[in-house]
């Protein structure tokens, strides 16, 4: 994987708690990208293109400054972190993200945007320890620890899950550059940049041909009405078995073929293209319309 | 089934649309009973025990009057329906409920409350036609049509689903009585009470022993991490196959036994008891803590 630890900050638990308490009171809304998620996924924009507290769509700012939303003033500690730790000149979007009993299925980001994907620089910091919450990036699964600032390679096939009800609030700060850059330029506070930390990489069970065969036996039960459920079930497997997240889609295609439903095969191939191939800005996808 | 059509009103589409537009702007929050649902389930209280706009917990009023919430004034047409069609003296709670790409798993209501279940009288009216949205009640699946006022036998094993993204906004008016009553007492407007309407009962495919065996083959793929997903997948089957909703739980128990995981068997038996057996007021249940 290309994702890696950029540095680490010591979180002030008392100040953090006040911000977390505010975030918990913000109602959940339907997400811009809710094709990708299942369960409780709550994104709260703190800085974005418009300053709108409900504007959750990531888009290129083209040199304009990111605007604080109405939420930013209610999370003074996180606001301080954003504006003192990170290089706000490069800031595109800052938001808190929480997952509970939920998965964001394997996908690639930025494919619908204009820049070379390598000019987008997504950082991610977990604010609370949630032992059953994981990220994946290509061949690796990560358990992020609070205070670790990660470069998240959102242009790779990646996914996130929280198998539990335990809150996993986090701060996602998106930066973008116009040309070649050094990743230390992501930070205003140069003392924070200390790459090379050893990540917590959970052990995954071996994935065998026999297990693959068991998975393909889902052809026995897949139907159009549960197609989406099967996808989300498959998407979780790579977090506990040593297999690539993109295999999710190949299993779904294989299961659909065994089930002998051409429409299902077509939709499985479409969702693969949409999630990890190319898609247009604002393009939506239905897993349930046939 | 004991659920049946109580009557029908002609909905004023222009006035309704304004109310629906308001309801669409109300953010979704975590639901009191979110163990039961998956996907988009949005309940907005219009009348309840406290008048609190965020108070979604159904409880006995013990003779006190239900209070309008802050939302009631924003839906003047629905408010007029509630206060002129129904017997507000018996009103316990009135709320709008919407499901999209979501299921509420088979369960029984009122089991945690004090009265004889037959003294609770839940009415339900769909406000929009959503062709892939269904209710179930014991042995029957129903496609409700807009304007039909249903007695919903919430004390029976029942479930609801919307297989599509199409909005299925509805008005759920809960009444309660202190002793024997005639169901026409549910209405202030006696002209609305016109039982005996023929419901739209969709055809379901036969459920065979061979299909049951295929379902039990989910033992090949069930794991603690996808236990909840398997439950929700199973819960959908009775909407398209002619089988009782409670079988959902017996399949889950059977699959868990075949998988040979005693903890899973225990949890499957617990969720069965919680959903369709007895539970305490405010009792919660985790499908993901092991």
Automatic annotation (TrEMBL), chains A, B:
InterPro entries hit by this protein: Asp/Arg/Pro-Hydrxlase (IPR007803), IPNS-like_sf (IPR027443), Pro_3_hydrox_C (IPR008035), Pro_3_hydrox_C_sf (IPR037037)
Domain Aspartyl/asparaginy/proline hydroxylase intervals: 17-175
Signal peptide: none
Domain L-proline 3-hydroxylase C-terminal: 187-283
Pfam families for the chain: Asp_Arg_Hydrox, Pro_3_hydrox_C
Protein name (Swiss-Prot/TrEMBL): Aspartyl/asparaginyl beta-hydroxylase domain-containing protein
Organism expressing this protein natively: Streptomyces coeruleoprunus
Upper taxonomic lineage: Bacteria, Bacillati, Actinomycetota, Actinomycetes, Kitasatosporales
């Amino acid at each position: 994987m290309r994702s890696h630890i950029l540095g680490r900050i010591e979180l002030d638990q008392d100040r953090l708690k006040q911000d977390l308490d505010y975030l918990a009171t913000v109602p959940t809304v339907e997400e811009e990208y809710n094709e990708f998620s299942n369960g409780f996924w709550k994104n709260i924009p703190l800085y974005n293109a418009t300053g709108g507290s409900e504007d959750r769509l990531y888009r290129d700012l083209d040199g304009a400054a990111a605007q604080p939303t109405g939420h930013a003033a209610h999370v003074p500690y996180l606001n301080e972190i954003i504006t003192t730790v990170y290089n706000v000149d490069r800031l595109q979007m800052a938001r808190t993200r929480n997952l509970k009993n939920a998965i964001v299925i394997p996908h690639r980001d930025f494919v619908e945007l204009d820049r070379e994907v390598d000019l987008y620089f997504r950082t991610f910091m977990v604010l609370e320890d949630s032992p059953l919450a994981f990220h994946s990036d290509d061949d690796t699964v990560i358990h992020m620890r609070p205070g670790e600032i990660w470069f998240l390679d959102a242009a790779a096939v990646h996914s996130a899950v929280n198998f539990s009800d335990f809150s996993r609030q986090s701060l996602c700060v998106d930066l973008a550059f116009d040309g070649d850059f050094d990743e230390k330029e992501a930070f205003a506070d140069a003392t924070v940049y200390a790459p090379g930390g050893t990540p917590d990489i959970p052990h995954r069970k071996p994935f065998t041909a026999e297990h693959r065969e068991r998975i393909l036996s889902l052809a026995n039960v897949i139907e159009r009405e549960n197609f989406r459920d099967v996808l989300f079930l498959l998407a979780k497997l790579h977090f506990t078995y040593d297999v690539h997240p993109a295999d999710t889609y190949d299993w779904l295609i294989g299961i659909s073929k065994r089930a002998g439903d051409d429409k299902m095969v077509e939709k499985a191939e479409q969702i693969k293209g949409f999630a990890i191939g190319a898609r247009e800005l604002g393009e939506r996808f239905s897993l349930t319309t046939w």
